[in-house]
Design goal:
Blueprint (H helix, E strand, L loop, with lengths): L9 E4 L2 E4 L10 H5 L2 E9 L2 E2 L2 H14 L8 H15 L4 E9 L14 E8 L8 H4 L1 E10 L16 H12 L4 E6 L4 E4 L3 E6 L2 E5 L8 H12 L4 E4 L11 E6 L3 E8 L2 E2 L4 H14 L2
Parallel strand pairs: 7-8, 7-14, 11-12
Antiparallel strand pairs: 1-2, 1-6, 3-4, 3-5, 5-6, 8-9, 10-11, 10-13, 13-14, 14-15
Length: 288
Amino acid sequence: MAGYDDRDGKIWMDGTLVEWREAKVHVLTHALHYASSVFEGERCYNGRIFKSAEHSERLRTSAELLDMTLPWTVEQIEEAKYATLKANGLTDAYVRALAWRGAGEDMGVASARNPIRMAVAVWSWGNYYGDAKFKGAKLDISKWKRPSPETIPSAAKASGLYMICTMSKHAAEAKGCSDAMMFDYRGYVAEATGANIFFVKDGEVHTPLPDAILNGITRQTVIGMLRDKGIKVHERYIEASELEGFEQCWLTGTAAEVTPVGQIGDYSFEVGALTREIATDYEKLVRS
């Protein structure tokens, strides 16, 4: 497959649909130097973007947390996403909305005078973890920790916060793993590099409290599904020593959807009945 910069199709940029290969920014774009950008990852199923408005609202919130005010409303962002899908003839696709500080009068840490820009791209994308979606992903344990919310805006889906995630995933892939699990700055279980994490023990579900990580939209959806089934969900701090006692594990995220985990470091988990049930029910929900 061609690189992401060399494809046919259209990308929405600042209110206009442009040819895919012409969707460019200047090398002195502020976001390229100082990570002043936020984004959303979404999936469209049968012509409908799952939780689309919630993603658009979060894009605006993330921008505000980075001291950027988007000049596009939620309604305008929604229109942009669906216009891009239509222009590319896609009804099942991954949707990437991105907002950033562009090139302008400022070229230093401060950039208040630079324009805020936005783009939407869509493409066909299969399972994020490949066949791990069915047999269980193998995870490394990252040496990097999610930072304290006193040092980063952890509630923002901001590009710069993924730097340690990229390094963690590269290290994991070098070991033959699909991804890596990260601890937070206190040593509690946090998340994978781009997905939230859940565990099962004695028929109850445990997931990290999202006070230093992104409270994913898929995470919130799955918690609601579990509670609707009458399954107890514990949102809490999870110690590293507890990994040995959990029976099942799965990841959630827009890209990951619901992906079972078979191994984290030296700890093994079964792809059990509850994991399979939630994965199946989530698939039905997003396509309903």
